[in-house]
Write the C-alpha cells for this entry.
Amino acid sequence: MNRTQRPTTLFILLLVSLTVHVTWVLAGAPPRAWQAVLGNLSFFPPSLLAAALAWTLSTRLSGQARRAWAFFTAGLLFWAAGQGLYTWLDLTGASTFPSAADVGYLLLAPCFLLGVLHVWQPAPSRTLALSFLLDVAIIITAIGSLIWHFSVQRILDAYAATPFALAVAVAYPVSDLGLLALVLSMAVWRPRGLDRAQLGLIGGGLAGLFAAHSLYAHQAAQGLYHLGTPLDLLWTLAFTAFGTAAYVRLAAPGGTAPTAWSLPLQRRHRLNILLPTMALTLSYAVFLLAQGRDPLPGPLVTAAFVLLFLRQLLAVLDNGRLARSLAFQAGHDALTGLLNRSSLHAELDRRIGAAERQGLLVGVMFMDLDRMKYVNDAYGHAAGDEVLRHIAERLRASTRASDDVARFGGDEFVLTMTVRDTRQLTQVAQRLLTAVAQPVRFGRATFHVTASVGIAVCPADSADAATALHQADLAMYRAKAAGKNVYRFYDAQDHAAQREQVQLESHLREALRDGALDLHYQPIVSLAGGHLVGFEALLRWHSPLLGPVPPLTVVKLAEERAMMPELGAWVLSRAVQQVAEWRRGGQHPDLTVSVNVSASQFGLSAFVDQVTAALERHGVPGEALVLELTESTLIQDAAVSAQKMRDLRALGVRIALDDFGTGYSSLSYLRQLPVDVLKIDRSFVSILGDGGDGFVRAIVTLAHDQGVRVVAEGVEEAWQRDTLWALHCDLGQGYLFSRPLPAAQAEALLPAPLAVGHGN
C-alpha cells in the first residue's frame, strides 16, 4: 500500500466506524444483552484509527510539527489504553473507579496541550497576549467556581476518606478546565502549521471531549449514565475530528504545508469584546448563584476579582496605547514612519505662522525621486519600498530635529524648515541631493536613484501651506526639465506661463470638441509646368478669447498633453473630406492633399484602420492622400513603421518623408522604407547660391535614383524656383506660389495653372 492509499484507507475506516456507532446508538443499542460489550468496544476503532492517522502524519513532518502530532498520537493512545483497562474491569465486574484506566483518560489533555504548544505562535503584541490570557483565566476561574459549587464539593464529601480516589475524581474537572482553556486559546491565536480547517477540527474535538466529560460527570453523579446513549457519540465525534484534521494535511497535494493564516483584524476585534464580556458575565453569574447558598471558597472568588481588576486596568492601559497608536497612524506614513500629507499641511501652516511672527523664513522643499519607475518595473515593489525606506532615513538624518520630513505620496517627499535666509536652503538642498544619490542595496542588487527638488519660500512666495506646496511642486518640475538631480526655486513668471499653458489646453480641448479649429491649404506646384498638383493641409486656430494661436504652439501643446492622436484624427478626416469635395465631379481627378502625421498618432496600433475609415467614409481613393512623416516618427521602431507604410501603400496612400536632411539617418531611410515623396527642408532652400546647390543636387539625384519625387519647401523667391528647376527638383511649395489659404480661397486656384513660368 503506497503513501497515498494508506491514509485514505484509514480515513475511510474511521468514517465507517463513526457511521456504525451512530447507527447502533440511534437504533437503541441492540441487543440489550450485549449492550455493555458493544458499547465499550465501539470506542476503540475511532480512537485507534485517529491515532494511526496522527502518527502517519507525524512521520511525514519534521521539527516542531512532527513532535506536535506525536504528542497528539500519544494522547489518543493513552485514552485508548485507558478505555481498554476500563472495558476489562467493567466486563469482569471489577471496580472501575478509581483505577489505572483513569490515568489513561486523564493523560489525553496534557498530551494535547504539549502538542499545541509545539506549534504555538506569539501574539501580535505583549499587551494583546496578556489581555487574552487574562480573559481566558477569568473564564476558567469563573467556570471553575461553578464546577466547585456544583460538583467538586460533592466529590470532596464522597471521597474524603480515600485520598487516591479523591485525587482522581478532582483531576477530571481540572482536566476539563484545561481542555476548555486550550480551546479558548486556540480560538484567539492560530498555531502555526495548522490551517483553518485543522484548527477548527482539533478545537471542535477538544470542545466535544469537554462536553462529553461534563455531561458524563453530571449523569454519573445521579446514577443515570449507561452505555449506548447519544452521549457516547461525543467521544466518537471528537476522535473522528482529530483523525480528519490529520487526514486534511495528508491528502493535501504533494503534502504541502497549510496556507499561512493569521487572525483577521475584525475577528480579533470581536474576540476582544466577546471574551471580557463572557468573563464578566460568568463572574457575575457565580456571584449571584452564591447568594443564599453556602459561601464560595474565598481563594476562587478572590482570584476572579483580582483577575477582573487586572483586566480592567490593562484595558485602560491598552486603550491609551491604542489611542496613541491610532493617532500616530493617522498622522504618519505606514511605510516610512514620516509625516503624511494631512499632518504636513497642519504642521506647515503652524510653522509659517510662527515664522511670520519671528521675522524668519520657511523653506518648503518638494522632492521627487527620478528613477523609481525603473526600480519598481525591474525588481518589483518590494525593492521599491526598501529604497523608499532608505531614502526616508537619509532625509531624516540630513535634517535637523526641528525640521519636518513627510512622504507626500508615491516617491514624493516634502521637507519644511525654518531658516534665516535662502542661503541655508541651498545648502540643505545640495546636502539632500548628495544623500539621496548614494547607492541603495537590496539583496544582491544595488540601486542608484537621484532626486529633483523644488523650493518655495514662505511667506515671500506664499503664506499658506496649500499654495506653498503647489509652488514647490511647480519648481520641482522645473528641476526635472533642467536635467534632474538639481534643485530649483519657485519662479512666479514660470508659474504664470504654466497657468497660460493650462488655460490654453482648456481652450484647445473646447475648440476640438466644438469644431472651432480650421485647416488652411498651401499649394504644391510642378516646377516644370507651373500647374498645381495638390495642397498641404495646415492646422489653424483663431480663439475668440486668445486670438490667433501659432500652429507650432498648438502642436507642441497637443503633444505635451497627449492630445495629438485625437487632434491628428480630426485633421486627417477634415482634409480627406475637403479633397473629396474638390475631386467631386471629375474636374480635378488627380488632386492630392498632404497631411502631417505625428509620432504619437502614427504609433497607434489602429492608425492604418483610422486612415482606411476616413477614405471610405468620404469616398476618396487612397491615391488622393499623401501622409507626411518625419524621421523622428519612423525611428521609434523601424520594422513596425515599415510594415505600416506598406499597409498604407496597399491602400494607394503615398508616403512623404518630411524635413529631409535635418536628421542623421535620413539617407538610410530612403533605402529601407517605402517612401514615395521626399521633402527638402527649407533650411537647404535658403542657402541656395551660398554653397547649398551641391547639397540639393545630391539629394535630388539620390531621390530620383530611388524612384522618389522631390518637393522643395520654403520657396519664396523666383530665383530659388529657377535654381531648383535647374537642379531637376520636381515640385515646389512656399510663399512664392501662395501662403496657406482657407478652403474657399484655395479652391479659387484650381481652375487654371498659376502664372509661375520660368524666367518671370
Confidence is low (pLDDT under 50) at residues 259-263, 753-760. The longest strand covers residues 532-543.
